[in-house]
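Morning!

As promised:
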Amino acid sequence: MILAFLEHDAGTPTQLGAETIGFAGALADRLDQALEVVAVGPEAEKAAAAAAPPAEVVHLGLGGLGTYAPRAWAHVLADVAGAGGAVAVVAPGSERGNEVMAHLAAMTDLPLATNCVALDPVAEAGPAGGDGPWRLTRNRWAGSLLEDAELDPGQGRPRLLTVALGARPPGAGRQPVGAPAIRPAGTVADDTDLAVAVGDVVQPEGSGVSLTDARVIVSGGRGVGGEDGFALLEQLASLLGGAVGCSRVVTSEGWRPHRDQVGQTGTRVSPELYIACGISGAIQHMVGCKGAKRILAINTDPDAPIMGKADYAVLGDLHDVLPAIVAELRRARGAAD
Ligand SMILES: Cc1cc2nc3c(=O)[nH]c(=O)nc-3n(C[C@H](O)[C@H](O)[C@H](O)COP(=O)(O)OP(=O)(O)OC[C@H]3O[C@@H](n4cnc5c(N)ncnc54)[C@H](O)[C@@H]3O)c2cc1C
C-alpha cells in the first residue's frame, strides 16, 4: 500500500496537497499497490471529499489532534503506515509536509527524501516491483540545485518522501477506483505529541486574494521606491483581480508585511502571470516565483538577472510603465462596457 498525506487548509486541499495525491496515485499504479490517504486536522472530512482521491481507503485523523501539531500528526501516519504495511509514505514538500515527515522519520528511524521532483521506483538495473533502490531527483538549495539520489530498501520500510510543486509523477494518472472506504485514524495524542501545536489561525485584516491562490501577482522590489509606490501596484492588481507581492528588500524596509514576500524565505507562488516590477531577480526571489506560468519583468536595467529569466520584459521606469498599463486596461474595459 502507498500512503499519501493530504494537506489542506480548513478543508480546502492545497495545490501541492492535490498534486501529492496524484503523485502517490501514479506511484501506486506503477507498483500495483493500493492507495490510501490520511487527512488530519479540522475539516479533514471536507478536504477528503473535495480532493476526491482515487484511493481505496481514506483515514480521517481523530479529533484532539489540533489545527496543526506535527508530532501528533506524524503519529497518525506512523499508525496507519504500520498497520497497513505501507511500502511508501508520500507527503507534500511544504513546510507542514516536511515537518510532519521529519517527525515520522525520527520516530521510525528511517531516511526521508524531501522535495522530490522525479522518481523512478523500478529502475532498469533494479529488481521489479520497486524492491530495489528507488532513483529520485530532488530539489536542494531551495530549488537552485537538482540532486540525483537513491532511496535504498536496505535502510528499511516504508520509504519516506515528500514531493515538490510541479513534480513529475512516476507514471500516468490513476483512474478513479470508486468511493473510498472511510476509517477513523490515530491514537489520542498525549502532551508530548501536542507540545508544539498551532493554537489559533488569524486571517490578516482586509486581505483579498491570497498569494497562493492568485492567478495574477503584481510584485514590487526596491525599484518601487517606498511604501507609497505600492499604490500603483495595488491599482493594477485590483484591475486584474490579483494580489500584490514583493521582494525581501521591501519587507526588510518595512514597506510591506512579510506575508507579501515571495521567495525562499517568503511564499512560493504559481500564478498564471507574475509581474515583477523593479525586482532584480536574485536566486532567492526566483525560487519563489519560478512556478509562475509566465513572468513579465519591468526594469530600468537591461542586465538585471530577471530580464533574462522573464517570458516578457519591458525596459523602462515602472513609474511610467505601470500607469500606462492601468490606463490602457481601463480604456479597453471602458470600450468593452
Ligand atoms: C538566505 C537568504 C534568503 C533570502 N530570501 C529572499 C526571499 O525570500 N525573497 C526575496 O525577494 N529575496 C530574498 N533574499 C534577498 C535577495 O538575495 C535579494 O537581495 C532581493 O531579492 C533583492 O530585492 P530587489 O530585487 O527588490 O532589490 P534589488 O536587488 O536592489 O533590485 C532592484 C531592481 O529594481 C530595478 N529598478 C530600480 N528602479 C527602478 C524603476 N524606477 N523602475 C524599474 N526598475 C527599477 C533595478 O534595476 C534593480 O534590478 C534572500 C537572501 C538571502 C541571503
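The chain has a mean pLDDT of 91.

Hope this helps with the figure draft.
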